[in-house]
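Per your request, structure below.
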């Protein structure tokens, strides 16, 4: 095997020299070592380095190609020699006289194995194997392979002699396969001989070190020759590349003729080496300035001394004739390696005159930019006026007063009456000023004052000297004199107007220690006030729209809680900081002293959300009048939302859809203490038992309104007396600082107290969980439960027999007498008789009667039929149809509600009724 060549590890290239470094230095740096200079000069950017690399690459390519060709040729010759040796050994053994005879013997292996090994060693091959006519090994250098079948010898079995490079078992090899024939030319066996492929290139591998060594020597000699040529080229080109040499002359011409800054290069002895056109113009140099000493140029003593000193100078202003030149001087030594210096000259005559004005303008722009960032951060009119005063003091004025119209402060449209304003903001650099305080009414009635003039002209008015101006004293002579005595000497009055409508007045004042206002200050004051006017007008319009939206929403919300005895209810509604939203609640009394509690949330904020909330609340009120179950009511509400949204989409208007609104509808029955709830995408309620334990019951949740495709389900809760049911919208528990889970934990800890009233619970939730200005509107409803006294409930099961009506009527009369309600006994018996007779005649069992006593008296008759009676005007000839008419005349309210099985017809009577209906009038109406 040939050994692996080892290459010496390349050393790191030395760091480049400092010849082209751009860092300034006041002292000459030491020259780098010679090797370092050569390494730096042989950079690939130089022409010498490029030539050297080109020659080295050519030599490397030629040597590599030659070495590769020799290796390939050697490999080819070695493989060809192996084929010839293998073929000679196989043919010699196959044609030997005893080979065919041994193949016919009973044990050819014993006869041929020694001979095959002898031939293998004598021929210098790796193996000689004898195969039978079927390719089975009879002899092999490896005894374990005897008896195995050889691969790829089919051609020899057909009588063909061939050589090949074999890949397979037992090893890759260059082999020859020769058939053994008998006298009749029939193949009776085969002989294969070969050399393992790994040993084919053994001779070549022994020659590789010599071959690679010769190639390396040739490469080194060629590289050395190229290096000598490149070194000589390096000296002639000074280490520059072709592009750099071209750019050098281009830059030289640009510096001489195109640069608008004077450039003067002096040698170490003070003579001029180069002066461009701009330097000749600025310094008035003579035409023959080149090679003359700097003292002979007539530059003046100061500038001449500066150039001869040879020290680095940055932007030092020196006079040169009637010009002021900014001079920069740098020594050449640290950069070019030679003694001397480079001086540049820039004309700053006009720049110096403009620099003060530019700095002043920059300061004013910065001030206006800061004002734009600080004014109008809130949508509050008063706070915006205060921000205007805070920005202007002390950067622009010592004192600032802001007056606004009362209509603007109220958020209303400003009127043309601008001669009375309310002082809204005052800012001063020091206390004790004589200006009127915030809240005073300021009148502008004297035509000669600067304020009135500014209002009349619609532009700012400047009074540079208040001592000599007498017109401004006419309004308040005493106050004007106090201001002068305090030191105020100059002012600017600017009308505060937006959309060509006056909103107020802003006055800027300066006092002792500050310069007077000038005309340039007027433009800044007008720009500042104009920006503030837009912010104040936006705040005013927002306040008006917000007040309108809040008024609208509060008018759409319940104005008060209805009177009822079964729930102690407290509620809160808090609008969002950014505007009203669509959160709402409702408390709806239902027949049988039941109460419906509703909480909902509309997507979005603003006027449209408030209107949408009103539409949904009205729909819920209408649906609740049908006395539907909570899940049925939400189903009808969902259908209505879907229908309205489809109409809105087809109308192509810009109203937001109702889809996505959430609602929770609960019905509490004080007779058995059960509460039935159904919710559409809304958060579930919290329940606090009489001991103060808080639970969030797992109630069925349906999608928000308008989604469709899903049925609504209802859940039931058993609420003992004294329990509290807390219904709320997501604004109560969720905000930017906490998520829903954290909000629910805080809500649970806040309401977990026994014996709290509904109002106390409401107050604790608002104080604990809500900031002063919540980011989302909040609707909150807390109901503390009560049960109807069992003595105020009476029920009878009635058989489906008309003869049972008198008995039930008698029992009802006795119960009314026990309750002390004899005055309503006649009307109640009449109502009961009609309802019970209809239930027995037209309904289905079971029939049941129930009396409920509370604020009113409720009579309920239920049966198993779903057929609802209908009130109609009976004709004179009709025998029936007058029963419900009598019920409607004697009862204050009556109606029908459906249960899981059957229906309930109810009639309610007030207990404070002054008189019964006149039977005679009823007979006249009925035609009797």
């Amino acid at each position: 095997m040939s050994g692996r060549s080892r290459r010496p590890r390349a050393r790191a290239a030395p760091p480049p020299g400092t010849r082209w470094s751009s860092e300034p230095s006041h002292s000459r740096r030491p020259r780098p070592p010679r090797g370092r200079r050569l390494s730096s000069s042989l950079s690939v950017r130089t022409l010498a380095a490029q030539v050297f690399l080109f020659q080295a690459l050519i030599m490397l390519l030629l040597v590599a190609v030659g070495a590769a060709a020799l290796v390939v040729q050697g490999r080819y010759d070695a493989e060809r020699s192996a084929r010839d040796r293998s073929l000679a050994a196989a043919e010699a053994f196959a044609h030997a006289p005893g080979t065919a005879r041994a193949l016919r013997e009973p044990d050819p292996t014993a006869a041929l194995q020694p001979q095959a090994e002898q031939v293998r060693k004598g021929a210098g091959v790796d193996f000689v194997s004898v195969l039978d006519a079927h390719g089975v090994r009879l002899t092999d250098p490896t005894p374990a392979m005897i008896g195995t079948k050889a691969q790829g010898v089919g051609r020899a079995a057909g009588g063909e002699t061939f050589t090949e490079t074999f890949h397979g078992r037992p090893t890759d090899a260059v082999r020859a396969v020769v058939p053994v024939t008998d006298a009749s030319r029939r193949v009776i066996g085969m002989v294969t001989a070969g050399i393992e492929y790994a040993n084919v290139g053994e001779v070549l591998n022994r020659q590789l070190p010599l071959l690679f060594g010769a190639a390396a020597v040739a490469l080194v000699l060629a590289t050395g020759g190229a290096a000598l040529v490149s070194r000589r080229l390096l000296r002639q080109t000074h280490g520059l590349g072709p592009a750099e040499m071209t750019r050098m002359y281009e830059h030289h011409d640009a510096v001489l003729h195109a640069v608008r800054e004077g450039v003067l290069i002096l040698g170490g002895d003070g003579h001029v080496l180069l002066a461009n056109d701009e330097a000749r113009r600025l310094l008035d140099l003579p035409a023959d300035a080149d090679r003359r000493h700097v003292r002979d140029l007539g530059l003046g003593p100061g500038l001449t001394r500066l150039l001869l000193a040879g020290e680095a100078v940055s932007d030092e202003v020196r006079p040169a004739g009637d010009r002021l030149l900014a001079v920069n001087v740098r020594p050449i030594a640290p950069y070019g390696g030679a003694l001397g210096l480079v001086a540049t000259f820039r004309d700053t005559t006009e720049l110096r005159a403009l620099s003060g004005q530019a700095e002043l303008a920059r300061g004013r722009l910065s001030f206006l930019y800061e004002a734009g960032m600080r004014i109008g951060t809130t949508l509050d009119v008063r706070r915006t006026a205060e921000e205007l005063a805070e920005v202007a003091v002390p950067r622009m004025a010592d004192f600032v007063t802001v007056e606004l119209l009362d209509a603007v402060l109220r958020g209303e449209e400003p009127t043309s009456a601008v001669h009375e304003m309310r002082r809204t903001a005052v800012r001063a650099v020091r206390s004790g000023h004589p200006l009127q305080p915030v809240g005073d009414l300021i009148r502008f009635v004297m035509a000669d004052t600067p304020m009135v003039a500014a209002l009349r002209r619609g532009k700012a008015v400047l009074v540079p000297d208040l001592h000599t101006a007498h017109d401004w004293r006419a309004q308040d002579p005493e106050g004007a004199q106090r201001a002068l005595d305090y030191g105020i000497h100059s002012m600017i009055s600017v009308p505060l107007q937006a959309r060509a409508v006056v909103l107020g007045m802003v006055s800027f004042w300066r006092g002792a220690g500050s310069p007077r206002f000038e005309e340039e200050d007027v433009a800044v004051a007008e720009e500042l006030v104009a920006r503030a006017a837009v912010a104040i007008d936006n705040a005013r319009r927002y306040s008006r729209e917000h007040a309108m939206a809040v008024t609208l929403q509060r008018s759409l919300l319940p104005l008060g809680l209805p009177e009822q005895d079964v729930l102690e209810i407290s509620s809160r509604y808090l609008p969002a900081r950014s505007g009203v939203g669509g959160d709402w609640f409702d408390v709806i009394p239902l027949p049988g002293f039941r109460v419906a509690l509703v909480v909902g949330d509309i997507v979005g904020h603003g006027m449209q959300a408030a209107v949408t909330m009103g539409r949904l609340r009205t729909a819920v009120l209408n649906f609740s009048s049908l006395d539907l179950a909570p899940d049925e009511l939400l189903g009808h509400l969902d259908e209505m939302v879907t229908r309205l949204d489809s109409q809105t989409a087809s109308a192509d208007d810009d109203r937001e859809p109702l889809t996505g609104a959430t609602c929770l509808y609960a019905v509490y029955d004080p007779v058995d203490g059960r509460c039935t709830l159904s919710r559409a995408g809304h958060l579930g309620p919290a329940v606090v038992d009489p001991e103060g334990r808080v639970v969030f019951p797992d109630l069925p949740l349906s999608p928000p309104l308008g989604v469709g495709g899903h049925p609504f389900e209802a859940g039931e809760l058993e609420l003992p007396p004294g329990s509290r049911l807390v219904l709320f919208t997501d604004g109560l528990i969720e905000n930017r600082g906490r998520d829903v889970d954290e909000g629910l934990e805080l809500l649970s800890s806040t309401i977990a107290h026994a014996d709290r009233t509904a109002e106390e619970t409401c107050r604790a939730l608002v104080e604990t969980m809500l900031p002063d200005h919540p980011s989302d509107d909040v609707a909150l409803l807390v109901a503390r439960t009560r049960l109807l006294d069992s003595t105020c409930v009476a029920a009878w099961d009635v058989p489906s027999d008309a003869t049972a009506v008198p008995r039930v009527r008698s029992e009802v009369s006795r119960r009314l007498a026990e309750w002390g309600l004899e005055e309503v006994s006649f009307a109640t018996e009449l109502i009961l008789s009609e309802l019970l007779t209809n239930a027995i005649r037209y309904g289905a069992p079971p029939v049941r009667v129930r009396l409920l006593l509370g604020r009113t008296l409720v009579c309920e008759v239920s049966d198993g039929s779903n057929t609802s009676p209908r009130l109609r005007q009976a004709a004179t000839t009709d025998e029936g149809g007058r029963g419900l008419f009598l019920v409607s005349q004697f009862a204050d309210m009556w109606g029908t509600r459906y249960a899981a099985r059957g229906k309930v017809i109810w009639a309610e009577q007030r207990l404070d009724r002054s008189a019964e209906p006149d039977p005679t009038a009823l007979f006249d109406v009925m035609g009797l």
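The two ends are 137 Å apart (CA to CA).

Regards,
D.
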